[in-house]
Amino acid sequence: MIPREDAEAVRRELEAVVAGVDVAPATTEIGDFLFSSWFDSTLDTALGREFVDAVATFKDPGPVGYLPGSDAKHLMTVARGDMVIFGPGSYEVAHAVDEYVELAALEECEAILSMFLEQALVAPAKGDQV
Amino acid sequence: MSGSDSGLEQLLRDLVAIPSPNPPGDSRAIAAYVADWLAAIGATTELLHPPEKCEADSVVAVVGDGKPPVIVLHAHLDTVPVAADEAVRWSSDPFTPAVRDGRLYGKGSVDDKAPLAAMMAAVAKLAPSDRALCGTVVLVAAAEEETGGRLGTRWLVEAGHLPHADFIVVGEQTNTAA
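^ inputs. structure came back:
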């Protein structure tokens, strides 16, 4: 969910959408599905700033939105700092015919992650104690 | 560094060539490949699966001695399946990686094997044993994301297989913006 959403409101909205679709002679049923609270990640920590700096070395660091679901919801309970969703390519081709990734974007992603890990784990982190 | 001379492109080709559609969610072959690759670069690697689905193998690989800061890099192993009428509409076989015009085509190429390959390559650069790290990186290659993650990442967390993390990167498609 995103800030200001709540699980019951999402379910009511989904029920309204489903009720408005005629699938006869089939029927529809909404089963249980996972909800998770929104996760606020400001990147205003030493590691967060180092990650943004690594991205900014190559491009406008964003932020950008990410609409599909992800495993981030399951990781909230082990996150004691920032969490970002980040990777090459567009989710618009993710489940499509002729799914692809630009090799340049793949290399860029690897370079950003390598720079971040080098700064965070080899050179001492600057600023905040983490 | 280019993909061709780093082996990054080849790594992604290898991952795409190992089908991991979900359903049915049998990730054993690709998990074994990832675990072997990460063990070879010096990571401490585990293959893990929940008791109710032994074919849903995930990989947890650690470089460092566990001290903070702990950085978790997470990507998923499984892909959506190729639908019954889908394969004929592909320009090439979905599980035979093909490069055309600077793009690598294949099922799972971008979701989620590209971020997984990038994370594996980045961890490999960090791994040489003669380098003193001031923290720990944990690479999680998870099963079951495409069906909600209950028997993948959620199980890994609830079973205590993942440490608390000071920073987490979840590999998905954001055009390499944060």
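The first strand of chain A starts at residue 79 and ends at 85. Chain A touches chain B through 69 residues (CB under 8 Å).
thumbs up if we can close this ticket
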